[in-house]
Amino acid sequence: MYDPLTNKTPYGATPAGEKTEFVFPLPSSMRAEKVFVIARKGEKQLRAELPFSHFDGDEHVFAGGIVMDEPGVWKYRFEATSPSGTLYFGRASGGRAICGEWLPEWQMTVTKKAYKTPDWAKSGVVYQIFADRFARAGKAKFCKKHGRLHESWDELPDIAREGEDYRADDFFGGNAAGIREKLPYLRSLGVTAIYLTPVFLSSSNHRYDTADYLKIDDLFGGEEEFRRLVADAKKAGISVILDGVFNHTGADSVYFNKFGNFPGVGAYGGRQSPYYDWYTFFDFPDDYHCWWGSTVVPTVNKSAEGWRELVLGRNGVIDKWTKAGVRGWRLDVVDELPTDFTEALCAAIRGSGKDSLVIGEVWEDASDKVSYGTWRPYFMGDELDGVMNYPFRRAIFDLVMRGDRGAFRDEVALIAEHYPKESLDASLTLLGSHDTVRALTALSGVSAPATKEERRGYRLPRDLEELAALRLKAAAILQYTLPGIPCVYYGDEAGMQGFEDPLNRATYPWGRERDDLLAHYKALGVMRARNKEALTGRLRFREDDELAVFDRVSEDGRHTLTVRYNPCLHTLEREIDAEDAFTGEWVDSVRIPPLSAYVSARRV
C-alpha cells in the first residue's frame, strides 16, 4: 500500500505550482478500475486521476500527479472505483494507506518556492553549551550587583530560597576562554557547531533577560574574548550559533531600566524615554505586558521602529554579531514573534551572512503550528531553516523506554512527511536541552522526588543509572542517524544527571565523566562523518516482526545506512551482509543485545 516516504515525489513538502507525483499500489483483489487523488485547502479542492501504470506481482500500480498551486497546508486522500463501489483511502498509523471510511487524511506542506538551507550544517554535530556552566579559564571576576559566584566549580546550582521566588543569580563563571580551551575536546566528539545559550549582558545566569544586546557579558569574557572564541572555533572547523531572544528584554536592562542600574531613562521611567513605545503598559509603571506573567522579562512591541532598528538595522544586533563571525541564530520562543517580524528577522540574518543557519524554538510539528490563533508559515521559504525537533525526541524516548515501535514510526514519519526535506535536514535532533530533564535522568524512568531540595541532590541508584546509560547509547544512535542535525546538550555525553531547571544546568564534570558514554559519543561522531551522503538522503522504514528498522539512503542510491533497534529483552540475530558502520568491517550476521541498536552500511 501507499507510503508517502517511498511512493511520493518530492520527499516531504513540495513547492507551489510544481507537480507532486504519486505511486499508488493496490492489491489485485480490490479490482480497482480508476484511482484519484483529492487535495484540499480550505474551500478549494483539486482532483486528479492516477492512470494505471503496471503490474507488480499481485498488485496493480497506479501513478500520476497533481499540482497544488497555493502555498500553505493542504490535505489529501485517495479514492478508487471498483465493481463493488468507491473505495476510500486515508492515513493509517505510520503514514501508510488504509482502506475504509472517515479516515484521517495526509498532510502536504506546499511552500512558496523551492529553497535551500545551509549545507555546511547538515552532516555535522551541534553541541549546546549553557554558557555559565561548561568551562572556565582563569579566575572569574564577579562584577554583578546581585547574586554570588560559587566558590567551587563542583557545587550544585542554587534553587529558590525558603519563601522566595527563584532568582537565577548564582554563577559559576563559565566563559569564552574556557570554551576555547576545550575546542580540542569538542573536535574529538566530531562537533562542527556550538550553539551557545545567551551571552549578552544580563543580570541572570541564563541570560534570557537581556540587558544590552550589543555587549557580551563581562563574566563570559567580554567582546574581545568572544571574538577570539569565534575565530579560534572557525580555525578548528567549528561554527558558532547564538541564541537570539527577541520576544522580550530584561526588566533590568538599558531599555526598560526598572531598577535604575543603567544610565539614561528606560521605559519604566516614563514617556520621555526613547524606549517607552517598545513596551505595553496597562497601568504605568508596574502593570505591563510580560512573557507568561514574569515581570523580569517585559515583552517587546515588535512593531516599534526603534526596536526594529536595534535588532535589524545596520550595525544592529544581527549585523554586528554576524559580521563578528557568528554563523547561525537560534530564535527563542519564535512562536511568540509576529510573522512579519520573523520574516524581517530571518531576512536580516541572511542579509548579513549568506550561509547563516536560522533555527526556531518550536516544540510541536512546526509545519502546521498555530500560535495565538494564527498559523505560522515557518517553512514557506521566507523564515526558518529548521527547528528544535522535539517530536523526534518524543519518538526516540517512546522506542527506547517503552519499546513502542508503532509510536516511533508514526511520529518520525509524520514529521518527515510534513517538513520540506531541506528544513528536516537542517533541524536539530535532540535528546535534551536547557529546558528538559537531563537525558540520563529521563531515560531512567525514575519518579521525581517530591521536593525541589530532594531533587537537587538526587543521584540515580546504580541499577537505574546502568539501565539509563544503556538506553542513552541506543537513543544517541537514533539521534545521530535520523534526519536532521544531532544536537548534544553539554554533559549528556559525560553522563550528567538532573531534573528540571535549574537542576539540568549544573557544571560540566571535568575529570568525572562516564568513560563508556564518552567513548560512545566519540565513535558516533566518527560514524556520522564517515556516512555523510546517506545521512543527508531519504528515510525509509523496513518491516520486521521484532526490530525497529529504518534506512538512510543517499540521493544517488549508492550508499545505504541501516539502523536496527532491539526493543526486546532477549538477543536477536539477523543476516545483514554489510559493513559495521562504526568499524568498517564486513559482517555477515549480527547479534543485537536487548535494548541496543546496531548500524550497518552498504555502498555500491
Write a structural description.
InterPro entries: GH, GH13_cat_dom, O16G_dom_2. It holds the Pfam family Alpha-amylase. The chain contains 16 helices and 33 strands. With 604 residues, it is an alpha/beta fold. Among the domains are: 108 residues, Immunoglobulins (Immunoglobulin-like), CATH 2.60.40; 47 residues, no CATH class; 66 residues, Golgi alpha-mannosidase II (Immunoglobulin-like), CATH 2.60.40. It has an 8-stranded parallel β-sheet. Strand 8 and strand 9 form a beta hairpin. The radius of gyration is 26 Å and the shape is globular.
The name of the CATH superfamily of the domain at 4-111 reads Immunoglobulins
Shape category: globular
CATH topology of the domain at 4-111: Immunoglobulin-like
Weakly predicted, low-confidence segments: none
**What is the overall pLDDT average?**
97
Described by strand count, sense and barrel closure, the largest sheet is: 8 strands, parallel
The percentage helix is 10-25%
Distance between the termini: 28 Å
What's the helix count?
A: 16
Strand arrangement in the largest pleated sheet = 25-22-21-18-15-12-27-26
| Radius of gyration, in angstroms, nearest whole number | 26 Å
Q: How many beta-strand runs?
A: 33
CATH class annotation of the domain at 4-111? Mainly Beta
Computed structural class: alpha/beta
What portion of the residues fall into strands of 2 or more residues?
25-35%
CATH architecture annotation name of the domain at 4-111: Sandwich
GO molecular function, one term: hydrolase activity, acting on glycosyl bonds
Pfam families: Alpha-amylase
Keywords: Glycosidase, Hydrolase
Protein name: Glycoside hydrolase family 13 protein
